[in-house]
Amino acid sequence: MKRPVTAVGLATTILMLCSSVAMAQSAPAASAAPAASSAPSATSKQNMAEDIKLLRRDVRAEKQKIMGAAMGLDAEQAKKFWPIYKDYDKQLAKLNDVRLGNIIEYAKTYDTMTENKADELVNGAIAYRKKRLDLLANTYDKVREALGAPLAARFLQVEDTLLSLIDLQIQSNLPLMWGPEKTEKTSAK
Q1: Sequence ranges of the domains in the chain
Q2: What confidence tens digit (pLDDT) does each residue in 47-63 have?
Q3: How far apart, in whole angstroms, are the C-alpha atoms of residue 39 and residue 25?
Q4: Alpha-carbon distance 141 to 152, whole Å?
Q5: Half-sphere exposure of 92 (CA within 13 A, CB side)
Q6: 3-class DSSP state for residue 39?
Q7: Do the beta carbons of residue 73 and residue 2 sit within 8 Å?
């Protein structure tokens, strides 16, 4: 078995790649915001969709490199792990499509937010988180069956850290939901 990357090395790698990985993952949120204020042409929407697709593919490739370095698997272990991880990643990508839709809807309706829409968006975000946690738990079980609990725990630690960093970057690029202060300013005019 190859020697796994040390905690310091992994943290350094994650921090170095975090800005490019997380910015790529959060690009849809930033790109979605202008859509709320103007109506882009069909061509620009198609271009934006293609850009998002490419950025998300890059994020998955970077995550896979970090995971590979952190896991430190020998050839036999790698043959067992990577098919499980690739299946996980494929399912995660589908879940992230739902998340992206929710973020785009948030951007579109931000200035005209209603009680019902805010509730719908929050419930969508919560449902996404629950499904992602279930997927992560199921994948942990598969990795544990294939490679044992210590390597499965390592997978979970690394993946959870990467997901947390990406979540933080996405959330930091989304404006906070407005509340009574916006309503008061609007009614005072």
Answers
A1: 7-188
A2: 666 666 666 667 777 88
A3: 23
A4: 8
A5: 24
A6: coil
A7: yes
